[in-house]
Amino acid sequence: MSIIAKIFIIETMKMNSYSLVKAILKQEKKIYKDIIPLLEQKTGRVYNPDTFSKRINRGSFTYDEMLALCEILGYEIEIKKL
Fold it and tell me: How far is it, in rounded angstroms, from Cα 82 to Cα 47?
């Protein structure tokens, strides 16, 4: 992962899940409809685009879904003790 990507992830960790998902998708020039089929394949769940958007906006996007999304888009979540 490049230094720019690491800085991007560090800055977005200060955000809520909605902001983090939006920032990653913007960085990768993707929209929900682009990633939903990939996320369905990865998680085995079926996602309705409208419901998916509402879940992200409410902050009810699970950690497992976030891990799957990051993996699909080539990111990793790294937790470090400060």
Answer: 36
